[in-house]
């Protein structure tokens, strides 16, 4: 397997791993519909397609983290607007805490005194 393919697969897995968190973050301040959520995620380089998002929205709804309402659209058919529930806000707080811990842990590894002395690594990041 080529290095670029390995890196791209790793990126994809990382993005999938934070997709639920990202969706809850997008919906934390305002309700939104699926294609707008997709665009907001694409705008920050978390690439997601409808085939990935819709099953996840359904799963989050079934878990009680999201709910939805139908709203008439000035352009086309009615839109399903998703909104975060109280349970979703609790989950978001937990995910946010977990994210902060993970970032701290990764930073600790990157800057660890357990690593070889500066300049002795094959490649510095």
UniProtKB/TrEMBL annotation:
InterPro entries registered for this protein in UniProt: Metal_resp_DNA-bind_regulator, Tscrpt_reg_PadR_N, WH-like_DNA-bd_sf, WH_DNA-bd_sf
Pfam families the record matches: PadR
Organism superkingdom: Bacteria
Domain Transcription regulator PadR N-terminal: 23-94
Protein name per UniProt: PadR family transcriptional regulator
Species this chain originates from: Candidatus Cryptobacteroides excrementipullorum
Source lineage: Bacteria, Pseudomonadati, Bacteroidota, Bacteroidia, Bacteroidales
